[in-house]
């Protein structure tokens, strides 16, 4: 069976151009959505993926209609390949049932892997550079004096949490985390 997938980013946009191209190609069933491509939840795409069986084909008007990102697109096409499903992008001239289509997609997969490696290398280089200048990664540490003051105020039972956070600049989440940490260190008997 040949499945078509059509998507536009907003409710105001029209799917007619894509649907006409998919119908002309000869798809049996079209799944269509009007939502941004960056959203994880795309119910029609998810439904189509459930229907796919070995020997089926997925046809889109352009690559950017189906993939949220290059990585997502490559992952989808790899999944199709593993399941024996052909993929066709009409405007991009890709058809994974042909040798040329497979080659083009292999190049895309290589570029996506290269992109991931470059991001990883830049992240590592940035962390090393920061460490060389005496900086550490992760969350900044809270001023211990402020935390100590916040805990004393909390223990006094004279101040509300809001008053404590305003006076010390320690957030509610941080205050509660230190209270819990202290409670666990004291065997579970929290003050206050």
General description of the model:
The protein is built from seven helices and five strands. By secondary structure, it is α/β, with parallel strands linked by helices. It folds into two domains: 2-111, Resolvase, N-terminal catalytic domain (Rossmann fold), CATH 3.40.50.1390; 144-185, no CATH class. Helix 3 links the parallel strand 3 and strand 4 (86-89). The model has no long low-confidence stretch (mean pLDDT 85).
Please outline the helices and strands.
Layout lengths: L1 E7 L7 H10 L3 E6 L8 H9 L5 E4 L9 H13 L3 E4 L4 E2 L3 H34 L11 H13 L4 H8 L3 H14 L7
Parallel strand pairs: 1-2, 1-3, 3-4
Antiparallel strand pairs: 4-5
Q: Which short descriptors sum up this protein?
A:
192 residues, alpha/beta, Rossmann fold, 2 domains
What's the quick description here?
With 192 residues, the chain is an alpha/beta fold. The protein contains seven helices and five strands, in the order βαβαβαββαααα.
Biggest sheet: strands side by side, in what order?
A: 2-1-3-4-5
Q: Can you tell me the CATH topology of the largest domain?
A: Rossmann fold
Q: What is the name of the CATH superfamily of the largest domain?
A: Resolvase, N-terminal catalytic domain
Order of helices and strands: EHEHEHEEHHHH
Architecture per CATH nomenclature, i.e. the level-2 architecture of the largest domain = 3-Layer(aba) Sandwich
- How many domains make up the 3D coordinates? 2
Class from secondary-structure proportions: alpha/beta
Counting DSSP H or I runs of 4 or more residues, the number of helices is 7
List unreliable stretches of 5+ residues.
none
How far apart are the first and last residues' alpha carbons, in Å?
Answer: 66 Å
CATH class label of the largest domain = Alpha Beta
Total DSSP E strands: 5
**Rg calc:** 27 Å
Inertia-based shape:
elongated
The average pLDDT is 85
Helical content band: 40-55%
């Amino acid at each position: 069976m040949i499945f078509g997938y059509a998507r536009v980013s907003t409710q105001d946009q029209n799917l007619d151009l894509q649907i006409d191209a998919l119908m002309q190609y000869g798809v049996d069933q079209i799944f269509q959505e009007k939502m941004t491509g960056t959203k994880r939840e795309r119910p029609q795409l998810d439904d189509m993926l459930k229907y796919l069986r070995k020997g089926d084909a997925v046809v889109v008007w352009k690559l950017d209609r189906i993939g949220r990102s290059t990585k997502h697109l490559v992952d989808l096409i790899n999944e199709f390949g593993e399941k024996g499903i052909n993929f066709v992008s009409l405007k991009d001239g890709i058809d994974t049932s042909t040798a040329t289509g497979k080659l083009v997609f292999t190049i895309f997969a290589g570029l996506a892997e290269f992109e991931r490696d470059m991001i990883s290398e830049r992240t590592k280089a940035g962390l090393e550079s920061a460490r060389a200048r005496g900086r550490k990664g992760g969350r900044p540490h809270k001023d211990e004096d402020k935390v100590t003051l916040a805990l004393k105020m909390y223990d006094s039972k004279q101040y509300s949490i809001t008053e404590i956070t305003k006076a010390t600049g320690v957030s509610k989440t941080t205050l509660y985390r230190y209270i819990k940490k202290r409670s666990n260190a004291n065997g579970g008997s929290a003050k206050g």
